[in-house]
Design a protein that fits this description.
The protein is mostly helical. It is built from nine helices and no strands. The longest helix is centred in the N-terminal third of the chain and has 23 residues. 28% of the residues are buried.
């Protein structure tokens, strides 16, 4: 693979990497740093990439590893786990979608890390179960089980049940088909 082609392929993956990074760390600024570090590591180790394999899965694995390495280093830092700083952010009065998104993020943050991770990979980032299994180093059935449990728990946390619309009358985020709680009909199967 030529360096020019590899560079173009890396650049094409940036939006997906950025979305995954934001879901992991919850901060756009930190996500940008994660993506930059992951791309830097991928570029410096481009000779280790195996042709014929999924570049996307390889990059997601690098990003995930960078995140966990940084997470372990930050273990002693003060975090906003109870949401005190987050609640201080002002929201305009009639922008209910921001409230729905805030509720979704709070519910997503309450999921166990492994469930949140696979739900983000499969639901938000569009990875296949197979790609997510490769990245996480587990069997496909484990990924499917984690996604199913995550969707069920997310629906419970958001109080959705079988409802398809929020109190404002708009379809809820979890029921939009983006992955989170989107297939309650399939859960009944």
């Amino acid at each position: 693979m030529s360096q020019g082609s590899f560079k173009d392929d890396l650049v094409a993956q940036i939006p997906g990497l950025r979305a995954f990074a934001v879901s992991l760390c919850g901060s756009v600024t930190l996500a940008d740093d994660l993506v930059q570090e992951a791309l830097l590591r991928a570029w410096s180790n481009s000779e280790k990439f195996q042709r014929g394999t999924s570049l996307r899965a390889w990059l997601f694995t690098i990003l995930r590893n960078v995140y966990y390495s940084q997470y372990r280093k930050r273990a002693r830092e003060v975090q906003d786990s109870d949401g005190v700083f987050t609640r201080g952010i002002a929201v305009s009065g009639d922008q209910e979608s921001h409230l729905d998104l805030a509720d979704f993020r709070k519910a997503l943050a309450k999921l166990p890390a492994k469930q949140r991770e696979v739900l983000t990979m499969v639901g938000a980032s569009g990875l296949s179960y197979e790609e997510a299994a490769i990245i996480c180093g587990v069997e496909i059935g484990t990924i499917k089980s984690r996604v199913s449990r995550a969707r069920t728990k997310l629906g419970e946390l958001m109080g959705l049940g079988d409802r398809r619309q929020s109190a404002s009358g708009r379809p809820s985020l979890a029921g939009s088909g983006s992955g989170a709680g989107a297939d309650s009909a399939e859960r009944g199967k």
